[in-house]
Design goal:
Order of helices and strands of chain B: HEEHEEEEHEEHE
Shape of chain B: globular
Radius of gyration of chain A: 71 Å
Oligomer: heterodimer
Shape of chain A: rod-shaped
Largest sheet of chain A: 6 strands, mixed
CATH class of the largest domain in chain A: Alpha Beta
Number of helices of chain A: 17
Strand content of chain B: 35-45%
Strand order of the largest sheet of chain A: 16-17-15-14-12-18
Strand content of chain A: 15-25%
CATH superfamily of the largest domain in chain A: Histidine kinase-like ATPase, C-terminal domain
Structural class of chain A: alpha+beta
Chain lengths: 739, 203
Amino acid sequence: MFSGKTPVLLLLALLLASLYLMSGATHNSALFSRLYSVLLGINGLAIVLLVALIGKHMYRLVQQYRGHVAGSRLTARLVIMFIVLAVTPVSVVYYFSLDFLQRGIDSWFDVRVEKALDDSLELSRTSLDVRMRELLRQTRQMSPQLANTPDSMAALALNDIRSDSDATELTLFSPNGRIIASSGTDTSSIVPARPDDATMLQLRQGSDYVGLDPIRDSGLHVRVAVRVPSPNPVGESRVLQALYPVTDRMNTLANSVQAAYAQYKELAYLRKPLKYSFILTLSLVLLLSLLTAVWAAFFSARRLVAPITDLAEGTRAVAAGNYDKRLPLPGKDELGFLVRSFNEMTHKIALARDAAARSQQQAEAQHAYLEAVLVRLSSGVLTIDRNQVLHTSNPAADQILGVDLGAFVGRGLDEVRREHPHTRHFIDAIAPHVVEGEQEWRDEIILFGAGGRQVLMCRGTLLPDVADVSAGHVIVFDDITALIQAQRDAAWGEVARRLAHEIKNPLTPIQLSAERLRHKYLGKMDEKDADVLDRSTHTIVQQVEAMKEMVKAFSEYARMPRLDLEPIDLNAVINEVLDLYRGERSVKYLVNLDAKMPRVEGDIGRLRQLLHNLIKNALEAMESRGDARLSVTTRCMEEASCRFVEVRVQDNGPGIPGEMLGQLFEPYVTTKPKGTGLGLAIVKKIVEEHGGLLWAENPPSGGALVVIRLPVLTSNRGDDESDLTLALVNHKGNDDAAA
Amino acid sequence: MVFSTLACKNNKQERTRGRRFPWLAMVALCLVPLAPARASNPAFQIDHAGTTLDGDVYHLNANISYRFSQDALEALRNGVPLTIQLDIQVYHQRWWWWDKDLASLVQRYQLQYHALTKRYIVRNLNSGGQHSYSTLGGALHALGDIRKLPILDKNLVSADTSYKVRARVHLDIEALPAPLRPLAYISSGWRLGSKWYTWSLKR
C-alpha cells in the first residue's frame, strides 16, 4: 500500500495544499478561512501517516541492520546522508522564517496608526454628534404636534409630519412599547424597528434618546426617540421614534472609518493568534516537507540499494552453485549495466556447467560401458603404472589369480605379492617387462595356487601417457590350463587307442605260440631243458596276460561308450558304494549327505566306478596311518545362477605333492608303487562325460580333497524334503588298498 | 407547506454539516482531557423551551441565557463577530431502532460590536434581519428570547406517533477568524454550548 509512486504523489499534493494554505493564511481569504480547519486536520493526518510510515521503515531498517541483511548498511548510510542534507537547509530556513514572521507581523502594528484610527473614529462621532443634536431638536419639535392626536388618527398625522421632515420613518409607540402607527418611505420593511428595552427605560425615566443605528442595506441611521406630551397629565406619555438617514457622503466616510477601525482592532487583537497560526502553518509545512524528505530518503535509498542487494544475493547464489538466478534490471544506468553483465556472466557459467556435466555424463557412460565389457571378459585384465601400482582389474583377473584385486587398487603389486605368495610367479614374470617399458610383450607363466597348477598366457601393451595417470601397462591374461589339459587328454586318448590296437593284436599270437612251444616240446625235452621251457613259456604267457590286462585298461580309458543316462539319487549310490568298504579296515567314515539333494542325470554304473576309484585312492593314500579318516560330503549349491551337486571326498593322508597337483588327473601320474596310474584319470573322464567339473586340493586341515561338481537335473528341483542326515560310520576292517 | 420546504432545506444543511462533523468530533474528543468541565463556568443554558401549534405550524418559544467567557467577550469587544448556532430537532423514539429524525433546523445568529456607534448588533443569519442594542445585556437578552420561531408544518406530523423536540445552542468555532480557531478548539473558554433540552411535541 505504501510503496510505489502513488503515496509520493499523494504526499506531494498534500504538501502543495499546505503551501496553498499558507499563502491563504497570508491573505486571509474567504476560501482559506472556510477550509482552514479541514486543511489543518488533513495535514495533521498526513503527518501522522508519514510518521507511521517512517517509523515502519525505520523499524525495518533497524531490524535489517541488526540481522546484517545485505544492503542494510548502505541503506542506513544513504538515509542518514539524505536526512542530514534535507534537514540542515530546511532548519536554517525555518529559523529565519520564524524570525521574519515575528518581526513582519509586529511591523504591521504601530501606536501612531492606532491612535490615528481612534482619533478618526472620534472625529466621525463628533461630526455625527452635531447632526444628531440637530435631529433631536427637530424631532422634539414634532412631538407636540402629536400630543393631541388620538391613536386612530396618528397614522395620518405621522405621514404629514414625515413629509415635512428628513425622516425616513416615523413611528408612534404606546407607553408599553406597542406600535400605534408608523409611516415610512421604505415600503419593504413593514414592521418598524422597535427601540430596545434600554432606550424605553431611558425614555420612561424622562430623557430622550438619540443614537446612531447601523441598519442593514441602508447604512447608518440616526435614531431619535422622544416622548410625546400626553394630553392627560397623569397618563403615561407615548413615544415618537424617528429614523433619519445620514448623508451618503457621511455614510461612506463613517463606514470606511468603522471598517478600517474594526479591521485594525481585530487584527491587533488577533496578533498573537495570528502569529501562532502562521508559525503553526509554517511548522506544519516544514514538518511535512521534512517528513516527506525523510520518507523519500528511505524510498530512494532503497531504490538505489535494491540492485546492489540483488547483486549481493546473486553473487551468494552463484557461490552456492545456483547459476540460474537472473536479477531484475533496475534501469539503464551504470547499475543496470552491472546487473546485465552479472546476468550474462551467470548465464555463461550455467552454459559451461551444463556442457561440463554433459561431457562428464558421456565420460561416465563410456566408463560404465568399458567396465561392463571388462566385467564380462573371460580374460583377466590389469592396468598398472610405471611404478607397478595397480589401477584397474576385472573379476576375471580376480578369479584366475584367486585374489580380490579390487582391494589392492592404488597399491603396489609388491603388496599383492606379499599378501598372496602364490601370485609371486605371475608378478615376478611381468615385472621385468614393465620395468623395461616394452611396447608389447607376451609370456607364458606357470602358477601354483590353491587351485593347483595354472598356466597363464600373458600379453602386455604399453599405455600412452594420459594427463593424470603416468603411463603404464595393460596386461591381459588367460588361464590356458584347461586348454593344455584338453590337448594332453586328447593326446593320451590317442596313445591309448593306438596301444590297444597295435599292442593287443600281436599279443594273442605270442601267447598261442608260447603255448604251442610248451605243448610240443615239453614232453620231448629232458628234465633240465623242460624246466627252462616250462618256466619261460609260463613267464611269456603270464606276462602276455598282464599285458592284455594292461591293454584292456588302456582301451577302457580310451573307449568312449555311450552313456546310459537316468535320474540318479547320488546319496543312495554313495551309501551303496561305501557299504562295500565298511568293515574292511579301521577307517573312520564321516558321511555328511545333504537330504535335500536333487537328482542328477547320469550313468549309474560309471558313477559307481567313479566313487570306487576315488575311495580306493583315498584309502591307499591313508594306508600307513592308524587314524585314517575319510569324509564324504554332498550338498546342493547354486553359484552364478547355475545349480549343481557337489561331492567332496577328503582324507587325512599325506596330501598331494605340490608338483603333481596340476597333473593329478592325467594318466600314469601316481605316487603309488602299484597301480596303472589311470584311476583318477578315469574319474576325471567320467566327470567330464557328465558335464561336470572336478579338482583336487590340499586343504589347510591336511590331507587331500577332491571336489566333484555335477549339474542338477532341471526337472526335479527340491523333490526331497527330508532332513539332512548325518551318518557317522566308524568301522574297523581289514586293509584293502588295491588301486 | 412553506415550512416543510424550510425544514427540508435545513435538513440538507444539517447533513452537509454532519459530513464534516466526524473529524471535528474526533478532534474535540482528543481535547476533552485538556479542559475539565466546571459546573459554574461560562456556558449557555436553555432555561425553557416549548412548542405551540399556531394554525398549521409548530412554533418554538425559548428562553436561553448566555454567559460568555472573558476570552469571548474580549474578542467581541475587539470587533470579532461571534456566531451562535441553535440546533432544533424533531424526532420520534423507536425502541427497536435508532430514533428517526422528522425535521431538524439550524438557526444561526451573529453578535458583533459596532465601534463607531458603540452598539451591539445581533444578526439572524438565516433571515438576514438585524437589530442593534446599546448594551451587551440587551443584545444577549434579545438573542435568548426566541418567540414564535416556525419549525414544523403540521402535515408532516402523523397523528398516532409521539414526537420529541430537542434544542441546544453553541458557539460556532468554525465561524471564528481562522487564526483563532486552533486556539479555540483547545481552550475551554471558547467551547461554549448548552446541553440538549428535550420536550414532547404537544398537539
